[in-house]
Automatic annotation (TrEMBL):
Keywords: Signal. This is Substrate-binding domain-containing protein. Transmembrane segments: none annotated. It is found in: Cell envelope. Pfam families: Peripla_BP_4. Residues 1-21 form the signal peptide. InterPro entries: Peripla_BP_I (IPR028082), SBP_2_dom (IPR025997). The keyword Signal applies. GO terms for molecular function: carbohydrate binding. Belongs to the bacterial solute-binding protein 2 family. It comes from the Bacteria. The keyword Signal applies. It comes from Nocardia colli.
């Protein structure tokens, strides 16, 4: 990466390494607000507990850097046009760096490209866009998590059975990968997905959809939800129908909060869930490198853990940030 005090030849030499190439795509930023680097974060929506927790964690980790100024996080409310406008506003404000959690990949691609063209370092968090101009992508392996969820379903239904699937936004890469991984894992095990429907990651939507499925009278052995919020929405519907305990539920997210998936496994509301790290800590660490002209990894894949009644307490303690976030 080219330092303001290094020669052009030094910059070229540094940019020849594969790892540094992404960082070299942007001009080195300089603090622009009282000696602070100004950072914008475009969030797809704040309605999901996962994203609300991500926001809190990002604010916490950003505060550990006195030379960072994180602007108010924008909420697109699951509307891609709104998010495009919010990203463009950050570009017009000439932020020093931009983080984007896209609502959908295609609509946000042009806006991210505009940020790249403006030489603003960009981190893509959790969901992809259809361009690789960004500096770093940070997220979990959604196919693997879906596959692990499918393996858990196979274990829960050794003689086969009927599954219903609550899906996120259909155009989102995490939804696509979580679906494919699950279906690949259950193939050949006499498990049938009898219903699947988009519930847009939201608890209320999942409750309504599950109520509709239950009203049909078909035998349901297990619910696979692409996140814990939808899983708990399904649990409400199942409980309301008087079927609690007869239908098992698998989720994804594993948040260490009182209303999250880890506690739900401990309480017997969910069969299992899988930790999907927010990436907030990694995003801030990557910002620190980018804004101080250090190379970063183009793709950072975060690990997962399966949460079971046996390990839930330990995992909750491992990921609990309530003492730091004041919640």
């Amino acid at each position: 990466m080219r330092s303001l005090r290094r020669s052009v030849l030094t910059a070229v030499a540094l940019c020849t390494t594969a790892v540094a190439a992404a960082a070299c795509a942007s001009n080195p930023p300089s603090p622009s607000d009282g000696g602070q680097f100004v950072i914008g974060y475009s969030q797809s929506n704040n309605a999901e507990p996962y994203r609300a927790q991500l926001n809190l964690q990002l604010q916490y980790f950003a505060k550990q850097h006195p030379d960072f100024k994180l602007l108010p996080i924008t909420d697109a409310h699951q509307d891609s046009a709104t998010q495009v406008s919010q990203v463009q506003t950050f570009i017009q404000q000439k932020v020093n760096a931009l983080i984007v959690s896209p609502n959908e990949p295609a609509p946000l691609t042009a806006a991210v490209q505009q940020a790249c063209d403006a030489k603003i370092p960009v981190i893509i968090l959790d969901r992809n866009v259809n361009t690789d101009c960004y500096d770093s992508f940070i997220g979990g392996d959604n196919y693997l998590i879906g596959k692990l969820a499918g393996e858990a379903a196979v274990q829960a239904l050794p003689n086969g059975g009927n599954v219903v699937e609550l899906r996120g936004i259909l155009s989102d890469h995490p939804q696509i990968d979580r679906d494919k991984g699950f279906r690949d894992a259950i193939a050949g095990h006499n498990i049938t997905i009898i219903e699947d429907q988009e519930a847009k990651w939201l608890k209320a939507n999942a409750t309504t959809v599950t109520q509709q499925w239950l009203s049909k009278g078909d035998k349901i052995d297990l619910v696979y939800a692409h996140n814990d919020d939808m899983a708990l929405g399904a649990q409400l519907a199942i409980q309301g129908a008087g079927k609690a305990g007869s239908i098992q539920i698998i989720g994804i997210d594993g948040l260490a909060i009182p209303t999250g998936g880890i506690r739900a496994v401990q309480n017997g509301q969910l069969l299992t869930t899988f930790v999907y790290p927010t990436g907030a800590e990694q995003a801030v660490a990557t910002l620190e490198k980018l804004l101080h002209q250090q190379p970063v990894e183009k793709k950072q894949v975060l690990d997962t853990l399966q949460v079971t009644p046996a390990n839930a307490a330990q995992i909750y303690q491992q990921y609990d940030m309530s003492d730091k976030l004041g919640k």
